[in-house]
Amino acid sequence: MPTTPTIARIWRGRTRRDIADAYEPYLRAEGIPPLEKTALGVQLLREDRDAETWFTTISYWADMQAMTAFTKGEPTKVHHLDRDAEFLIELPERIEIHRILVDRRGLR
Hints:
Helix content is 27%, strand content 30%. By secondary structure, the chain is α+β, with helices and mostly antiparallel strands. The chain has a single domain, classed as Alpha-Beta Plaits. A four-stranded antiparallel β-sheet has the order 2-3-1-4. This is Antibiotic biosynthesis monooxygenase. InterPro entries: Dimeric_a/b-barrel.
């Protein structure tokens, strides 16, 4: 199995701006640890706008088989956290899966 990621799995969700500070630690505690245990890497991004905040989670996978094993055979299905309906403006309906074509992290 390669140790270099070839797949990026991207989830996006948005909250009201006034509850984003409460959702972030919940997402860090409940959504990120399972990815840290299985994926080759994970990033959590936050974009604050006037009335809403977008959160983006990107996980990196060796290949489709590794990602499919993590998602129990359904790589594009969204697996919502227990409290997502409480925090998110709407529940995301899809996950993006991208092949990584160029990865030059750490280079000049």
